[in-house]
Amino acid sequence: MLQNDKKRCFVELGKFLGQFSKDVSVQNQDVLNNTMFFDDFQRLIELSQSHNGWYTPNQVRFALHSWSEALTETNLTQWLSAYTFETVVPKKVGIILAGNIPLVGFHDFLTVLFSGHDVLIKTSSNDQHLLPFLVKYLCALDSTFDSKITFVEGKLTSFDAVIATGSNNTARYFDYYFKDVPNIIRKNRNSVAVLNGTETKEQLTALGNDIFCYFGLGCRNVSKLFVPEGYSFDAFFEAIFEFKDIIEYEKYANNYDYNKAVFLMSLYKLLDNGFLTIKEDTSYASPISSVFYEFYGDLATLESRLQADKDQIQCVVSNNLIKNSIPFGKAQQPELWDYADNKDTMHFLLTL
């Protein structure tokens, strides 16, 4: 299958997803195969929460919107231009997907196909419907995909390499089971934000998106704030007030009540605005409905620490305070060339 044919199909998929990026789906008559797929996908979005309680229609739509913006001719061309594909000998690459946020493994799926390999997909029990539907759409655009993509039930077998994503506990199993083949094993990571007190209200509101998108379940969600000594959280709380409705969602509210009770029973000092607790803590991983914070003395020392802890951190958000940090509000909108764990997945696949 030629690279240009793949690109054409994924651009068309991006246009298809773009129809579902708003609160109300709007059908575009220029999108291919809408008669076959539009209504069914609309129903799948509405049913996603029955398959996974965290997959509310709004959260699914946010994921679709992000991918519709990524899958453009310009983005795909820029991403692929950094690589050479002529010498690839097709192999079978297994991908074991997480299910914490909608379509979280789509980038691995995309990368394997564009690398020229065949993909064996083991979906998470928490996300078994969205990707298979999109694969059906791709196969309707070009039947060649049908021989390149296989969904696996049960144990993953007959693979030449593997990309597996899971918790720190499952990663130990992955390390053992896949030790004899080339692999990328992804573990728990968290994202942080670095503030200095000069952030605008708009920037702090954008930071709210980095915290609350997907209810904070993603590795790119900000779970830890680094702030200067004496920092006041008043402006931060004011800026994120527009996210207050998140407490109306029962699963989030249950986590908020439980974690707040645990913190209080442990006599921890908390800051609380009624839908988010903030606790001083050295850990990077905070529970749902809570964000940890830590004071820093100077940015140079903090940057050295973040570099030393890079294996625990997915991304850093700041207003250009830290080298290679990303702007507020962009944590859950990575570019195609922003690889998980800063591991160039395409390079890994091209050197198999």
In short:
The chain has helices spanning 3-18, 34-51, 57-70, 73-80, 106-115, 130-141, 145-148, 168-177, 201-212, 234-239, 250-265, 299-308, 345-350, and strands spanning 92-96, 118-122, 149-151, 161-165, 183-186, 190-194, 222-228, 270-272, 277-280, 290-296, 313-318.
Observed structural traits:
five-stranded parallel β-sheet, alpha/beta, 352 residues, six-stranded mixed β-sheet
Structure description:
The protein is α/β, with parallel strands linked by helices and 352 residues long. It has 13 helices and 11 strands. The protein has a 6-stranded mixed beta sheet with strand order 8-9-10-7-6-11, with helices on both faces. Strands 3-2-1-4-5 form a 5-stranded parallel beta sheet, sandwiched between helices. Helix 1 (3-18) runs antiparallel to helix 3 (57-70) and helix 1 packs across helix 6 (130-141). The model has no long low-confidence stretch (mean pLDDT 96).
